[in-house]
Prior knowledge:
It is found in: Lysosome; Secreted. The chain is an alpha+beta fold. It is built from 10 helices and 15 strands.
Amino acid sequence: xxxxxxxxxxxxxxxxxxxxxxxxxxxxxxxxxxxxxxxxxxxxxxxxxxxxxxxxxxxxxxxxxxxxxxxxxxxxxxxxxxxxxxxxxxxxxxxxxxxxxxxxxxxxxxxxxxxxxxxxxxxxxxxxxxxxxxxxxxxxxxxxxxxxxxxxxxxxxxxxxxxxxxxxxxxxxxxxxxxxxxxxxxxxxxxxxxxxxxxxxxxxxxxxxxxxxxxxxxxxxxxxxxxxxxxxxxxxxxxxxxxxxxxxxxxxxxxxxxxxxxxxxxxxxxxxxxxxxxxxxxxxxxxxxxxxxxxxxxxxxxxxxxxxxxxxxxxxxxxxxxxxxxxxxxxxxxxxxxxxxxxxxxxxxxxxxxxxxxxxxxxxxxxx
Length: 368
C-alpha cells in the first residue's frame, strides 16, 4: 500500500488540495482545546440495532439491510472469506439487493483505509474510559463549494450502533457503518473495549488482500479479528493475546482497554508480528494512551499531526476530569476533529455504556 506521505507529496505536486482550508502548522502553545461541548447539542446521536447471533449468519442482517443498506454507495471473492462473514455478506446482499461483489468491496475499503484517533484513559478513581474519532474518506471527492469530503458525507447516514446478542443477552456492542461486518470499534461489557486504527506502511493491506486472492489465506482480516476477539475472548489478557499474536492481512494498531487500573495498551502490528506496545502506567503518571495513524516511537507526519494537539488537550483536561465530558471535549478540538470525522464514540467498560455521535466539523475546520 502507498504510504500516506506519498499521497501528500502527490497532492502538493499536482495542486490537488482543498482550496478553502490550507493546513496550518500551529505551535502547540497556540492549540485551542474545546471545553463545555458535552453533552452535545444539535449533534445527532447514533441509532441502535440488534444483531441476534442465534439467527443463521445469512439472515442476521436482514432487518438492518432493509433499513440502511439502500444507502450503501460483486463476486467470487466472497466465497473465500471465513465463516460467518461470508454468509453474512451474502445475506446482506440478498436482503438489500446490492450485488454481493459491491458489498465485498465496501468491506475491503474499510480494511485498508481508516484514519482515526483513539484514546484509553484512566481517571483518578481508577475508572477506565475508551473513546475515538473515526475519520474516513481522505482524498475522495473534496467539494470546494461545500468544504466537505464527498465520501464522508455519504457515510455519516450509515453509522449505526449494533448490539450483538446471544441467548437474548448482549454479548458485545459495536459502532459500524451499515453493511460492514467487521469491527473497528467495540465493547464487551464488563471485560474490555477495542478500537482499530490503520497503520500506514509500505507492506500494507493491499499486499495482504492480493495474497489472499491468490490463495494465501492463513492470515486474519484485521477487522474480522477484532470481532472474533469480542465474540470469544473473556478477559483483557485473552483479548491482548489474540490481537498481538494472530497474523493479519494489514498493518494495524489495536487499541485495547480493560476493566482494571492500568489496562490500556496500543498494540502496533505489522502483518506477521507484534512490533511494539505502548502501555498505560498510572503509577508513573502515564494515565492515558493516545493513538492516531503513526508509530508512537516516531514523529507523526508534519502536516497530519493529531497526536500532539490531542495529547496537549488531554493534559489540559487533566486526569481528575476524565470521563465522557472530558474525552468528548478533546475529540471535539481541531484538528483531532476535522472534516473527515464521521463519528465520535465514548465507552465505559464497567457499566457497558457505549454512546456515539455523528460529527460534522463546521467551517472553518481542518480538512483532515
